[in-house]
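Q: Got a minute? One more chain.
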Amino acid sequence: MIDTGRQKIVYRQALPGEFEGVLVQLGPRMLGSDGGTFYPVLSGLEAGERIVTSGSFLVDAETRLNPAAGSIYIGGSSSGATPSKTVRPSTPEDTDAKIDLALAQLSPEDRKLARSQSFCPVLADSRLGSMGVPIKVMVKNQPVFVCCNGCSKNAAKNADATLKKVAEFRAKGSRAK
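A: Always. Here it is, folded:
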């Protein structure tokens, strides 16, 4: 939690790897049965929501240091307007950066293959890495990348169509260079 003096902000998970700042109202400091201190959340969060419990300062700092995100930070604009209850995203959407981060988690060889393919053969409008780390599947002994686990079965089930689509994507990619 970030306590600005006027506001208390918690970062909750909106999507995997994406967080949003939420204003919360806390109750009085209390002691748990184990002797630990806690503050009940009176408003701003629902039971079961996932929040940042360690590293909130880093999420907050990234938001403040990124000029584009700074203007959407709760109370960060100079307009003097009352801040909204929820600010999303904590950092601006940068699809290329998100894809680069996802692909960076692949081995150098797999990253090269995924970049040459660029798109999911099942969801052709889905760029590899836009939904997280691409999934590598073997289709007729050939490595193919799909955008998510849900596409893995369809890629294998329609093997010939999948391989044809991948060949088209790779051909387009090599012509673009």
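A: Residues 67-92 have pLDDT under 50 and may be disordered.
Q: Perfect, thanks.
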